[in-house]
Amino acid sequence: MVALLEEQRLDPQRELGELLGQPGGDGAVVSFVGIARRESMRGAGVDELLLEHHPVLTLKSIEEIAVEAAERFDVSRVRVVHRCGRVAAGEPIVFAGAASKHRRAAFEAADYLMDRLKTEAVFWKRETGAEGSAWIEPTEADYADRDRWG
Amino acid sequence: MKILFYGRLADSIGRELELHMAGCSVAELRHRLASDYPDVGAILANRRSRACVGDAVVHDDYVVAAGDTVGFLPPVSGG
């Protein structure tokens, strides 16, 4: 299990390479990349996303989610890399991936990782763009997605 | 005691505040802050806002000591 907080640039190709490059008996690698949107929910242009974080609790929250994914699903490896700080629109925010013998476990682990990261990773997101700045919180649909895992 | 704020709470209250309320619970601290800063009263009262002491998340019945640093975390969102 790998969980990292990245202050500079997140390179999804490199992160995927880390998952693919490990020897083992895996038959599947599933990865998800979250990208900073260029438009707000209201349709206004967004220039930048700020991901404020806590000096200790943020990494701890990502580690816990990654560990629980690794325990819950039949996966051999889990990798989560999350940006913090200022992210320009169009740039990657998060990489979440899993490797497993068979595809289903890797798909489910990646899905689970993202549902939990959306609602439980300790970040505060603020979009800045054409209409000024606005803090963004998970929607009720995000919480419902997380709750379906029990 | 020192109180730290994050996210939109920090926008309204500031990053840091010094209060002398040792012996009170986190719930009482929330009420006091909500009354002092009504703009963010709803965020402080939100059940998804949490408090931490040092680097551990604590419940509302936690009794705060004079030397504690209490952080108030508005609802979080990653991904």
What does the secondary structure layout of this molecule look like, with pairings?
The complex is a heterodimer of chains A (150) and B (79).
Chain A: E1 2-6, H1 12-20, E2 28-35, E3 46-53, H2 57-72, E4 75-83, E5 85-88, E6 92-100, H3 103-120, E7 123-129, E8 132-136, H4 140-147
Parallel strand pairs in A: 1-4
Antiparallel strand pairs in A: 2-6, 3-5, 3-7, 4-6, 7-8
Helix pairs in contact in A: 2-3, 3-4
Chain B: E1 2-5, H1 7-13, E2 16-18, H2 26-36, H3 41-45, E3 50-53, E4 56-58, E5 69-73
Structure write-up:
The complex is a heterodimer of chains A (150) and B (79). Chain A contains 4 helices and 8 strands. With 150 residues, chain A is an alpha+beta fold. In chain A, helix 2 (57-72) runs antiparallel to helix 3 and helix 3 crosses helix 4. In chain A, the strands form 2 sheets. A 4-stranded mixed sheet of chain A has the order 1-4-6-2, sandwiched between helices. By secondary structure, chain B is α+β, with helices and mostly antiparallel strands. Chain B has a single domain (2-73), classed as Beta-grasp domain (Ubiquitin-like (UB roll), Roll), CATH 3.10.20. Helices cover 29% and strands 24% of the residues of chain B. The A-B interface holds A 34, 51-52, 54, 56-57, 60-62, 82, 93-94, 114, 117-126, 135-138, 142 and B 6-8, 11, 52, 55, 57, 71, 73-79.
